[in-house]
Write a structure and sequence with these properties.
Strand content: 25-35%
Protein name: DUF1365 domain-containing protein
Number of domains: 1
Strand order of the largest sheet: 1-2-3-4-5
Helix content: 10-25%
InterPro entries: DUF1365
Length: 217
C-alpha cells in the first residue's frame, strides 16, 4: 500500500543564542523540546550531549523548528546543527516528536554530504514497528534546504519524509499571521492520514510509553 501527502511549511532556522520572540505568533520555549522546561533550550541540549561525551564549549548551534504559535506547538522533527568554537561541525541532533506528546533525540555524525544512519528507537506511527534503520540526509542549511528521512525495514524503504525549501528572510506581519495555525494544521493532517490508513485496515502496532532520555518528559 502506498500513500502520499504534501503540506506547505514555514519552519524557522534560528541561533540558540539569539532566539527571536514575537508573541503570540512566534516563541521558542524549552517546554516544547528536550529537557527541563525551567532551563533554556541550549542548556538542555548541552546537558543531554554531555551525557553522550559531546561538549559544545560555547560553539554555535542552529535549530530548525516551528515556533509555538497562539499557545500551541507541534514539531514532528526539530534539527540542531552543533558547531565547535572554531565553527567546525561537531554533530547533528534530530529531535523527533510523535502525536502522543513524546519525544526522542538521535545523536548523528553525518558525513560531508549530510548523510547519517541510525537505528529506529522511538514509536512514531501506529502502523510501523520500532525496528529498522533511518537513513537521514541533514546537510547544514544554506540558502536552500533539502532534508530527507527514510526508514528501512527488512531491507526495503517503508516510510520517507522530505523537506525542501529556500531561505525567505525575516518574516513580516502577514507571514506571521499566515503561519499562526501551522502547528495545528500539521498535526491534523498527520492524524487525518492515520485515520485513512486505519480505515483501510492496516494493522496497528501497539504502543508502549516512551521513557524520556533526559529524565524529563
Amino acid at each position: 500500500m502506498t500513500r502520499r501527502f504534501t503540506s506547505p511549511l514555514r519552519p524557522w532556522l534560528v541561533d540558540l543564542d539569539h532566539l527571536p520572540h514575537r508573541p503570540p505568533f512566534a516563541t521558542f520555549e524549552a517546554r516544547d523540546h528536550l529537557g527541563d522546561p525551567g532551563r533554556t533550550i541550549r542548556r538542555n541540549l548541552e546537558r543531554w550531549l554531555a551525557t553522550r561525551n559531546v561538549h559544545l564549549d560555547g560553539g554555535r548551534v542552529l535549530m530548525l523548528t516551528t515556533p509555538r504559535t497562539l499557545g500551541y506547538a507541534f514539531n514532528p522533527l526539530t534539527v540542531y546543527w552543533c558547531h565547535d568554537r572554531a565553527g567546525h561541525p561537531l554533530c547533528t541532533v534530530a529531535e523527533v516528536h510523535n502525536t502522543y506528546g513524546e519525544r526522542h533525540c538521535y545523536l548523528l555524525h553525518p558525513d560531508d554530504d549530510g548523510h547519517a544512519d541510525t537505528a529506529k528507537e522511538f514509536y512514531v506511527s501506529p502502523f510501523l514497528e520500532v525496528a529498522g534503520d533511518y537513513r537521514m540526509r541533514l546537510p547544514p542549511p544554506t540558502d536552500r534546504l533539502a532534508l530527507s528521512v527514510v526508514l528501512h525495514q527488512d531491507g526495503r524503504p517503508v516510510f520517507s519524509a522530505v523537506l525542501t525549501g529556500r531561505r525567505a528572510g525575516r518574516p513580516g506581519p502577514g507571514t506571521l499571521l499566515a503561519q499562526a495555525l501551522q502547528p495545528h494544521r500539521v498535526r491534523a493532517l498527520i492524524q487525518r492520514h492515520g485515520v485513512a490508513l486505519w480505515l483501510r485496515r492496516l494493522p496497528v502496532v501497539p504502543r508502549r510509553p516512551h521513557v524520556a532520555q533526559e529524565g524529563v518528559q
